[in-house]
């Protein structure tokens, strides 16, 4: 993933840009205030005028020019005027030049502040030769401070403020990052210790960045793991309970075989033991298939399947068992309906539904199958005319190893419908059982239709 698409990256970038902007603004403001109000050395304009006059009288315009250069280095542009003319060149803005003659004509001392942070001073000074001269000075501060000093103060304040703001924003960012990370870490440790109900919760999902998404993914993963482990534990408990009876019967049969008085009796017991072993093998295989289906179907095992054609094949395989009990299997369908999935898994689901219907149907009764399209899904219906199930048991029919009150009418382990449900959900579909009109049970398995193939 590109960092430019990361919301966490932009969050950090905006934070530190804001830090630098705040440091620049506050640094400039505080530096200017410090220069204006924090410096104790204020400019003495009268003393400055007297100094300029003494330099001029002792060294002339050359000495005055040197003096002006020295003042400029300290942040003051100054020179002497005599009879309205500058004795040495001086840099003055246009708006100062426009008013300067009026200020000189007033022949009085004045300190003006025409603009914020701009000071203009006009000072009268009497020379030893009896002539009156006037100091004109321009400064951006009311204090005597070298430009280098002001730059140093500005850079120092910028550095201090930058460190302060970076520290504050860095603490806030680190805190906002550390909280979901710590929440995920604590949830991970709790899960590792066996607490499968551990979740990150709101603490890790308050933000809207990759960490919040990671917290949501962790919770989804934890929920899935808890469901799978809970399911496996439940199935294992049910299976251990179900295995006790055939194992006990097998132990009794083998004990009777050992105590048999004749080879014929022993052979009969051994045949019964073989049947019990077959039942155990069938039950174990069904449980393994149920466990594998919890992981879904890998994408590479999917193919386009005609549900109608697949049901025809399933009916052909079930006809032998159905004819033995004089049960007629019929299929009502429209045009072919294509779904995407695994042929082997769907065959197993339909085989289980048909076998279950045959098992609980009275001899000579029909089992009716139908396939129709409902919106964008294929609906496969298997209906029998058996005793059905009580209302209270309908919601439990698809629970592994559940055998209802009518289970005594037929052999089974209570796994066929559970496997059919897992197959349906692994294909993005669902399954539902309801009472059929006129008696019996109707099971509906729905699957999403496969996208239409575009002609190339």
UniProtKB/TrEMBL annotation:
Q: Which Pfam families match?
A: HAMP, HATPase_c, HisKA
Q: Which domain of life is it from?
A: Bacteria
Supply the alphabetized keyword list. Answer: Kinase, Membrane, Phosphoprotein, Transferase, Transmembrane, Transmembrane helix, Two-component regulatory system
Q: Which reaction does it catalyse?
A: ATP + protein L-histidine = ADP + protein N-phospho-L-histidine
Q: Which residues form the HAMP domain?
A: 175-230
In terms of InterPro entries, this protein maps to: HAMP_dom (IPR003660), HATPase_C_sf (IPR036890), HATPase_dom (IPR003594), His_kinase_dom (IPR005467), HisK_dim/P_dom (IPR003661), HisK_dim/P_sf (IPR036097), Sig_transdc_His_kin-like_C (IPR004358), TCS_sensor_his_kinase (IPR050428)
**UniProt-recorded Gene Ontology molecular function terms:** phosphorelay sensor kinase activity
> Could you tell me the EC number(s) of this protein?
2.7.13.3
Please state where this protein is localized: Membrane
Any Gene Ontology CC annotation: plasma membrane
The record's section on SMART domains has: HAMP, HATPase_c, HisKA
Q: Is RNA-binding one of the keywords?
A: no
List each copy of the Histidine kinase domain by range: 238-451
Descriptive protein name: histidine kinase
